[in-house]
UniProtKB/TrEMBL annotation:
<dbReference type="GO" id="GO:0005886">
    <property type="term" value="C:plasma membrane"/>
</dbReference>
<dbReference type="GO" id="GO:0042626">
    <property type="term" value="F:ATPase-coupled transmembrane transporter activity"/>
</dbReference>
<dbReference type="InterPro" id="IPR003439">
    <property type="entry name" value="ABC_transporter-like_ATP-bd"/>
</dbReference>
<keyword id="KW-1133">Transmembrane helix</keyword>
<dbReference type="Pfam" id="PF00005">
    <property type="entry name" value="ABC_tran"/>
</dbReference>
<protein>
    <submittedName>
        <fullName>Aste57867_25035 protein</fullName>
    </submittedName>
</protein>
<dbReference type="InterPro" id="IPR017871">
    <property type="entry name" value="ABC_transporter-like_CS"/>
</dbReference>
<dbReference type="InterPro" id="IPR050173">
    <property type="entry name" value="ABC_transporter_C-like"/>
</dbReference>
<dbReference type="InterPro" id="IPR027417">
    <property type="entry name" value="P-loop_NTPase"/>
</dbReference>
<keyword id="KW-0677">Repeat</keyword>
<keyword id="KW-0547">Nucleotide-binding</keyword>
<keyword id="KW-0325">Glycoprotein</keyword>
<dbReference type="GO" id="GO:0016887">
    <property type="term" value="F:ATP hydrolysis activity"/>
</dbReference>
<dbReference type="GO" id="GO:0005524">
    <property type="term" value="F:ATP binding"/>
</dbReference>
<feature type="domain" description="ABC transporter">
    <location>
        <begin position="5"/>
        <end position="112"/>
    </location>
</feature>
<keyword id="KW-0472">Membrane</keyword>
<keyword id="KW-1003">Cell membrane</keyword>
């Protein structure tokens, strides 16, 4: 890991620079814009390390409203998840993240390639399922971050604003307010 020039990032009070990379990876879950699924059983896709019980797997599937769709943990996922919709793939990645019990979840444009109805379902599940978890959400759809505790606006890689959404929206001159009102 590249050492920081200034500042630090801590998870549970521990500076990540002092963590082994395997420990850091265990505490983070990244849900990318293009959800990653593997050829094989649903069980393997949810829990590649085989640590979770069937009850835990079913509980995660129920939380993301996919239990009825799949029917069995042996449901065969095709290469790259081609036999499920993009929204279902994203929900399966959310279920996988739930099972990992990570302290920090990074959602990188997690709803960029889906319809608005599925977007709303995924946003609802993210809010419900990751309550009490630090969520870093990278988004261009601004409505997906309006319920966040804080919003960080970057411009050319530099911090332009960082505050509560209500505070940023109340300032008509803020970059965030201007972005919201222009969409």
């Amino acid at each position: 890991m590249v050492p920081s020039a200034t500042g630090s990032i801590s998870i549970d009070g521990v500076d990540i620079q002092s963590m082994a990379i395997t420990t850091l990876r265990a505490r983070l879950t990244i849900i990318p814009q293009d959800p990653v699924l593997f050829s094989g059983s649903l069980r393997f896709n949810l829990d590649p390390s085989g640590r979770c019980s069937d009850d835990e797997l079913w509980a995660a599937l129920k939380q993301v409203q996919l239990a009825d769709f799949v029917g069995t943990l042996e449901f065969e996922v095709a290469e790259k998840g081609s036999n499920v919709s993009v929204g279902q793939r994203q929900l399966l990645c959310i279920a996988r993240a739930l099972l990992r019990k990570s302290k920090v979840v990074v959602l990188d444009e997690a709803t960029a390639n889906i319809d608005l109805e599925t977007d709303r379902l995924i946003q609802q599940k993210i809010t419900e399922c990751f309550d009490g978890v630090t969520r870093l959400i990278i988004a261009h759809r601004l409505d997906t971050i309006l319920d966040s505790d804080r919003i960080l606006v970057l411009d050319a890689g530099r911090v332009k604003e960082f505050d509560a959404p209500a505070t940023l929206l109340a300032d008509k001159d803020s970059a965030f307010a201007q972005l919201v009102h222009s969409t």
